[in-house]
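Example (one chain per record):
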Amino acid sequence: MRAIAYGENLIQLTRYPRLFPVNCYLVREEDGFTLVDAGIAGSEEDILEAAREHGGDIRRIALTHAHGDHVGSLDALSRSLPDAEVLVSARETRFLSGDMSLDPEEPQVKLRGGWRVCETRPTRLLTPDEKVGSITCIASPGHTPGHLAFFDARDGTLIAGDAFQTRAGVAVAGTLRVLFPFPALATWHEPTALESARTLRALDPSRLAVGHGEVLENPLRAMDQAIAVSERRVAGPEGKLSGAGGRRVS
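Predicted structure:
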């Protein structure tokens, strides 16, 4: 597992299963680390070792969403860290237990991506604007219905999960990048993802950290360009939303 530190508070941990980079993050706190996302299955020893090498214990695990590449090692980590908090959005928690139903007010679009049922139950359900140590939860649905991002106001770092990708170019969830199409193919509702991207951009982050791709410093221009591309996709050729599915109508 590759570990790269950015500033004083962020460490990106990356594994490359079959050339598919998957990131999780250690966020430094006074009492140790908050781990954002739990990586793919089998990552637990590498994550624990990275925390030890960087001088802290993992005190809490916060999830952006419940796709398998973000929760794969959750159960193993929870067994190794019985005192660590496990923090998940209330909406996304249902997916962890295997309940794949949609709420009546949500776009009735088929869920996408690979999901993993976990034995681990959250110790706390997160709500938007809630603090997790030094980072703040930001509602960012679209890639999944209960997706969260996390913003660190200490240095302007935005941990965006899969709301954006930087692999094969910066893109909003749902925008297909031919050289790395997987986040787009796993996105539930592109118009909602676009609205979330605008919300995240409005935070004016100085650093963008994502689930797939490199950390991007000074990301605002790239985020603006990615949002503009998503806006054109969502509007479609006639300048109208393409309906509940968020796909273009031919």
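Caption: The longest strand covers residues 22-29.
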